[in-house]
Amino acid sequence: MTDADTTERIGIAVASGMLKGVYGHGVLSAFEELGLRAHVYGTASSSGLSGGLAATGRAREVGVDYWLGAAAAAAEKGMSTVALDSIKEYGPGLREGLFRPGAPEFLLATSKVTNAEAAKVTQGPEAKALGKQLLRNIFTGDRSWVEENLAATVFSSHAVAGGGEPRLTPDNYDAVSYASTRMLHAWAVPAEVDGEAYVDASYTCACPAREVAAKGVTTLIAIGSDPFPLFRDLYASEEIADGSVLAGARVLVVKPDDDLKPLGVDYAAATPEGLVKAYELGLDAGHRFVDRHAEQLAAALAGRTGTPDETVKDLP
Q: Per-domain residue ranges for the chain?
């Protein structure tokens, strides 16, 4: 490996999207098929599972099956139970892979509640009503409650004790994973990490592109689940634009050409047929994306963006 080879660092940031996240899982599966791995994976809310599987080399193995199970259980069990069940099922494998020496850096975004009064509301019976109001605020662009009471908090699997960056560890992985998914309008079970209140990442950091870029990557691939512009949070505070430069990283965006809803995939409900179609669209988009950017991604596709640990790297 030459010095030139080692200068190219790939980062992948995957946006939240609830069940629409099946598309992003398809894109990640295609990348895995082609041997494209990143140095850094950034995830938020529903993309935590698919991004974690990609970081551990299991995105294609699990495929659409996870999403089929989640959608089927959502109406029957409620979203909190679906999230907790998925963590119980996939958590052991992810904890083993994500924290293995040489594994890519894995970022998991959350929204930390910053004051006691807001924590009381988000953890209590008023949470659902607040969550509905925060969703209505999306249409007016009102971020006032979020700005006053929440802070984007992104945990890293490579953070060190005393370094100032929130640490993602095998011990807190389950709690952080659940907290990242907890939308107030539909998740009944409160979320805490180390005794402090947290809510869904999407309110403050639906796509941690900026945090991934800050890790010194040279190419940042941002994956969205909707055809409209990709933004940092629910309130469109910052666009993540294809062809832009973010903290020195070249940004490449991959997202659906059309809304997934006509296929039968919406945020909180989806048909089995729609999920399969959306996953296949993601697979196809991932392959086309790599073909289109093959020259820029040449070093990665040659197996040079992985990690020293061959059990994690597993590249051609």
A: 9-302
**Contact 255/278 with Cβ under 8 angstroms?**
no
pLDDT in tens, 117-170: 999 999 999 999 999 999 999 999 899 999 999 999 999 999 998 899 999 999
Architecture of domain 9-302: 3-Layer(aba) Sandwich (3.40)
Residue whose pair of structure tokens reads 């629409």 in the numeric block: 20
Whole-prediction pTM: 0.93
Residue count of the chain: 316
